[in-house]
Amino acid sequence: MSDPTTDSPVIPASSGSSAPLYLIDGSGYIFRAFHALPPLTRPDGTPVNAVYGFCAMILKLIEDLKAERLAVIFDAGRRSFRNDIYPEYKAHRPEAPEELVPQFPLIRDATRAFALPCIEMVGFEADDLIASYARAARDAGQEVVIVSADKDLMQLVRDGVALMDPMKAKRIGADQVFEKFGVAPDRVVDVQALAGDSTDNVPGVPGIGIKTAAQLIGEYGDLDTLLARASEIKQPKRRQNLIEHADKARMSRELVRLREDVALPDPLDSLHVGEMVPEVVLSFLEQQGFSSLIAKLRPHLGHIKPVTGGSAGAGAAAVADEISEAGRQYELVQDEAALARWIEAATEAGIVGFDTETTGLDPHRASLVGLSLAVSPGRACYVPLRHVAAAEKQGALDLSAAQGGLDLAGDGGGHGGATGDDGAPPAQIPVGRALEMLKPLLEAPGVLKVGQNIKYDMIIMAREGILVSPIDDTMVMSYALDGTRHGHGMDELAQIHLGVTPISFDAVTGRGRDRISFAAVTLDRACAYAAEDADITLNLHRMLKPRLAAEHVRALYERTDRALVPVLARMERRGIRVDREALGRASREFADAMAILETRIHELAGESFNVGSPKQLGEILFDKLNLPGGKKGKTGAYATGADILQKLVVEGHELPAKVLEWRQLAKLKNTYADALVETINPETGRVHTSFALTITTTGRLSSNDPNLQNIPVRTVEGRRIRRAFVPDPGFVLMSADYSQIELRLLADIAGITTLRDAFRDGIDIHALTASQVFGLPVEGMDPMVRRKAKAINFGIIYGISAFGLAQQLDIPQSESRRYIEAYFERYPGIRDYMERAKADARAHGFVTTIFGRKCWTPDISAKNPALRAFAERAAINAPLQGSAADIVRLAMVQLDRALEASPLGARMLLQVHDEILLEVPVAEVDETTALVRQVMQDVVSRPVPYVVEVGIGDNWDAAH
């Protein structure tokens, strides 16, 4: 990488032959990128997920390798000379996915934009070109590294030619080839010729796999000798196959052997990393909409100005200029006088960037190691509190490799290592004294504390006796502004808005087995990393804050999203009590039920097999029982996902039905009954989930570590898990759930008078819909007819098709289509709403909730019909689900305040979809019920009432 302070391009040019030649399997990268990333489209609807992944991987590879000589090599097409040898070669491979095809030329464009050699040749595969370049380079005395995970390229490994797996960053030499094939690299072709390859349709010899092939080649030396002496093979079937299929083996060898004599399309000495032309690179990335990659490259394309990150205009640009011009002065604070100066500076500024460093990611178990403060651009400090003697391997870490030289000069305290000369712990202010000095600042109502995911820091500090307030959160702020247009982690935001790549955690703590605790990091490195975090956070705040008002989301952020942060922090700290014995009983019962199911499954299969093995199950279903619908994937195994099994169940097959039951029980046992016990905090005896505010498109909260929102509630077995969630003695659990909130929002937003009136009058909405659609009286409504209407009501919200409704109700598709048409005839305003939502999404790229939250629909104009249809359904549903999520968020904020202001002892514990779960003293149930209903129902004043149903129980299932 070039010096980021100059105008030099990101990659230096060099044509010297002393550096290794890296040959990149570009086609392998394309498919890896395509399958690794979710669908992405650029503004004109062209799919670009593979393009983005390819660009990101190539740039990272070059940066990591410091490559000077390199070429990216592609397949020119599906056919090669091998099809002339064997027409069936790769013939069974499906065509490339429709959304990948237009990305092939864009990836070539990207390679050229990055000034990299882009090589392909009609009639030959990329592997043949790689083999030919590798031989030419080796003959010229040059070292070659082939960057690919393709096993076929292992035959090229030899002295001077190595293979490198790009995902694992692991070199593959002769020893690793032997582990894979059981032979040396020069005999890999013989093993492959015998074993064949189902992926490429290489026939090989029937009945011989890799292991047997390796054994035979090891015994006879090579393929020709083996075939000549095949009559000596003792095993009759193997002998017969080798004799009968000798020609197939020889042909297979020609198919798998890579050509090393292809005329080189580009001269060997031209394969070097060129100089990027900033205008070319920027133009290409802007066309694709890759703002994060632009930000990553910007420091190395000196004259390109930083993006402002939004519509704050000239004000944001001015802030960006001020930030970029500020020098970095990061101070290590090791004495009380220095800390007092920083506290005074933060108090005077009225705002401080704040971040904590800890021993782990779980805020309920991690220990505070130190904290950082930032008061203006480039001016920040780190206060170490619990650093210990450094590990001996510390010195191996190279911070300068992760970030250009930082000015760590400060005006107080030195930058000593993590230990003194005698190996003692480093000089630090005593923890108790430091926290005593910091507490007034961190709790001062006149000083705004700005954090990135500050909820984590608030929980850490609360455990130290400090309640951080008031707060701003740049992660939450970014989410309110940009939703799911991009991620909201600090590194990504720093690249997008500041053009900065922060020091990575790995750079200061190491990776994998070599990772050390942050408490053992030397203080100079800890200061550089931690102070930068606080500095970047404060700079992001200066960039993002002006956009809130300019983009009309200030109220959403301040009243709802930011206000929810301390509420969730308190809920997470409380946790919820879980009955270990109840989980144990459930686990044993699930295991017993699974054993009974296994017995029945084996009876139906006619043999024993591992029910949990998709490969063995596929063989039973589609090879032995010859059930329809079997499809093999790239690994050669049949697909046995839930969708495949469900189709077989619909056709009346019992075995797949039992397997689905078994899988459900296995998930309940492993994911919940067994795993939840491990998540119980030993200090509190409770489970503490973490709520994420910035993940979903619609604003719904998500739960993780553990995820308590996905516990099944529609089955008896799933409800068994909820029964293990119990209150403390003297308390009950209270579930407060918004009734049919999305249907109410549909009636509200779409302006359906009939439905609005029904909700106001307390009429059964599903019975009313049945009456409207089927022309039947509401009184005495047949429950089955009401069920159909309910399926239509909820299905419409999610854009259900006639096919989907027919499957759900088990009726002919023509009948379901009549139901949907009748529904829209009775409620024409709903169709109008749906069309309006799609039109808004197409015009703006997003739809909004009733509170103004933008729910982005990037695929609304996609050329791929499936992607476009999914985006249209999302455009219809997002304003409903998103408005429901906003109502729940606001309800939690208001309820927290109301409970705090009341003498009641109730406390909120969990939030799941439209439900809030509380722990309530037994003696205060009636008063709490009345308060909860009033607060939640009065959160929003709309034409439709938002009714809350309250349940009470001695466990979560009973309350719900």
From TrEMBL:
It is an enzyme of class 2 (transferase). In addition to polymerase activity, this DNA polymerase exhibits 3'-5' and 5'-3' exonuclease activity. Pfam families: 5_3_exonuc, 5_3_exonuc_N, DNA_pol_A, DNA_pol_A_exo1. Residues 330-549 form the 3'-5' exonuclease domain. This is DNA polymerase I. Residues 19-274 form the 5'-3' exonuclease domain. The lineage of its organism: Bacteria, Pseudomonadati, Pseudomonadota, Alphaproteobacteria, Geminicoccales. SUPFAM superfamilies: 5' to 3' exonuclease, C-terminal subdomain, DNA/RNA polymerases, PIN domain-like, Ribonuclease H-like. Residues 718-924 form the DNA-directed DNA polymerase family A palm domain. It comes from the Bacteria. The keyword Membrane does not apply. Single-chain monomer with multiple functions. Keywords: DNA damage, DNA repair, DNA replication, DNA-binding, DNA-directed DNA polymerase, Exonuclease, Hydrolase, Nuclease, Nucleotidyltransferase, Transferase. InterPro entries: 3'-5'_exonuclease_dom, 5-3_exonucl_a-hlix_arch_N, 5-3_exonuclease, 5-3_exonuclease_C_sf, DNA-dir_DNA_pol_A_CS, DNA-dir_DNA_pol_A_palm_dom, DNA/RNA_pol_sf, DNA_polI_H3TH. It catalyses: DNA(n) + a 2'-deoxyribonucleoside 5'-triphosphate = DNA(n+1) + diphosphate. It comes from Tistrella arctica. Its EC number is 2.7.7.7. One of its GO terms (molecular function) is DNA-directed DNA polymerase activity. Belongs to the DNA polymerase type-A family.
